[in-house]
Amino acid sequence: MKDELAKALSDQVNAEIYSAYLYLAMSASAEHASLKGAANWLYVQAREEMAHAIHMYQFILDRGEHPSLPAVQAPKAAFADLKEIFEEVANHERKVTERINKIATLAMKNSDHACYQFIIWYVNEQVEEESNDADILAKLKMIGKDQGQLLNLDKDLATRVYANPFPADSKLSGAAPATLA
User: Fold this and answer.
1) 76 in a structural domain
2) Does 67 reside within a domain?
3) Suppose 133 and one of 8, 63, 90, 166 were both cysteines; which one would form an S-S bond, judging by CB atoms 3.0 to 4.6 Å apart?
4) Alpha carbon of 60 to those of 6, 9, 47, 124, 179: distances in Å?
5) Among 73, 83, 68, 70, which residue's Cα sits nearest to residue 30?
């Protein structure tokens, strides 16, 4: 793997960890506002982002490269309301999509078919992410200031459960690598 591609993937590992931090901060803000369903949805999102980071980290290692791990930026800690949170979610995911697309383009430019194939999963994932975020944000805009409808949406958001996005990857199953056992 070319250095510029390994660096781009390492930078994305950092961005995925930042995403997890951001969603944890958002989850805490929703929890503080007694919106436990939204807090759950955002917490599940944080776990998914960490799974993405570990998946990318492992890919870099599998390709014989050494991931760089710079400091993770602290996210915004407080939000006015759930609408602001999901506006931030939508904006953030659009930025993530840009980053992922740039990695896909870089992989194509470098004729790195393995990396391109790897990153395409994330390209498709971002379509789902942006669609989900837009759906929740549209509902929040329809709800407006109706507290009863906000509580109904909160109940819906509470139903989200974490599912490992990479269940077939034994390296991500939670067991320590043989070299660390």
Assistant:
1) yes
2) yes
3) 90
4) 7, 7, 20, 20, 17
5) 83
Closest to 86 measured CA to CA, from 121, 40, 133: 133
Q: Are the C-beta atoms of 55 and 100 separated by less than 8 Å?
A: no
Element of type H or E holding 121: helix 113-143
This prediction's pTM = 0.90
Reduce the DSSP state of residue 35 to 3 states and report it: coil
Angle between helices 3-32 and 82-109 (to 10 degrees): 170
**Is the Cβ–Cβ distance between 79 and 29 less than 8 Å?**
yes
Q: Are 12 and 58 in contact (CB under 8 A)?
A: no
Number of domains in the chain: 1
Tokens of 64: 């014989």
Q: Which two tokens stand for residue 125?
A: 């994932």
Which helix (H) or strand (E) segment holds residue 166: the answer is none
Structure tokens at 130: 């942006």
State the pLDDT confidence band at 170, using cuts at 50, 70 and 90: low
2-58: pLDDT as tens digits: 999 999 999 999 999 999 999 999 999 999 999 999 999 999 999 999 999 999 999
Confirm whether 177 is domain-assigned.
Answer: no
Which domain covers residue 23, as residue numbers? 3-161
Which CATH number covers residue 118? 1.20.1260.10
pLDDT digits (tens, 9 = 90+) for 140-149: 999 999 999 9
